[in-house]
Amino acid sequence: MSRPIYWHKTIDSTMIEAARLAAEGCPSGTIVGADEQTAGQGRLGRHWHSSPGDGLYVSFIVRVSHLPARTLAAGLAARAAIAEITGVQCDLRWPNDLLARGRKLAGILVNSEPSALVIGIGINLNHQSFPPDLAPIATSLAIESGHPVHRDTLLPALAAQIDDWLPRDPAEVIAEFQRVSSYAWGRRVTADDSLTGITAGLDPTGFLLLRKDNGEVVRVLAGNVRPVE
Ligand code: BTN
Predict the structure, then answer these.
(1) Most buried of 33, 79, 85, 190 (most Cβ within 10 A)?
(2) What is the pTM of this model?
(3) Of 211, 221, 208, 159, nearest in space to 181 by CA
(4) What are the pocket residues of ligand 1 if the criterion is a CB atom closer than 6 Å to any ligand atom?
(5) Strands (E), 63-184
(6) What's the gap in Å between 212 CA and the centre of ligand 1?
(7) Whose CA is nearest to atom 15 of ligand 1?
(8) DSSP string, 26-90
(9) Chunked in runs of 10, what are the mean pLDDT values of the chain (229 residues)?
(10) Closest CA to 91 of 101, 141, 227, 189
């Protein structure tokens, strides 16, 4: 599929530019990327470390409706592209953190714009080190695979996997997520530090189910899922 790609040397956040392009009516599949972001956005209002040249920082504008399953599909797409290009097999932490050896390798932020979804993907490619606050919890493809990874190799594979996974039936996406994610079943976690329980699969919409210690099963709608060791 031929698609517009807007590449920036430096940008505040590709999410902001992608939202602008979506409002202007750009075609579905359009990509906005940058070598560096000065105000990279993470989930839940966090900052995304976006040092120049080390990572892949892209946003896809996709004209599909927003179902939670699309968020999961984006994670599956990134996982498949990483495996295809580097051989690194990532775990997925609901809804769509990509982990290697329990450390964060990539993150995904999905924003619902009036006429499109903006799917922002940040993948740590060639970092050999991280700022002190991230060092214990982050990793990169170069660290995991032992080889440098060029974004020009990974981006086409990622785009092809997004095209493949985004339109899929939610039931298929949810089934695949539950198959590959170590977080889907039987994992003791907290959600937003306020809810603790054992994961009990996903509901038919794609929300995580948590069995609390009193036996009650609740849905996690969003938030920060972390393991309790
Ligand atoms: C997360 O918190 O895990 C989501 C991180 C998403 C980062 C990507 S990098 C490209 C795009 N632009 C942004 O500002 N954020 C997303």
Answers:
(1) 79
(2) 0.96
(3) 208
(4) 13-15, 37, 40-43, 46, 48, 57-59, 97, 107-109, 120-122
(5) 91-93, 97-100, 103-113, 116-124
(6) 31
(7) 41
(8) PPTTEEEEEEEESS-B-GGG-B----TTTEEEEEEEE-S---HHHHHHHHHHHHHHHHHHH----
(9) 92 98 97 97 92 93 91 98 97 96 96 95 94 93 95 97 96 98 97 91 96 95 87
(10) 101
Q: Which of 121, 125, 158, 224 for mutating ligand 1's site (highest number of atoms within 8 Å of CB)?
A: 121
pLDDT, tens digit (0-9, with 9 covering 90-100), for 51-66: 898 899 999 999 998 7
Q: In residues, how long is the chain?
A: 229
Q: Which residues of 94-116 are buried (b: 16+ CB within 10 A; e: fewer)?
A: bbbbbbbeebbbbbbbbbebeeb
Distance, in Å, from the CA atom of 97 to the CA atom of 90, rounded to the nearest integer, reads 9
> Which of 98, 109, 123 maximizes ligand 1 atoms within 8 Å of its Cβ, making it the mutation to test the pocket?
109
The span from the CA of 121 to the CA of 158, in Å, is 10
Q: DSSP code of 207? A: P
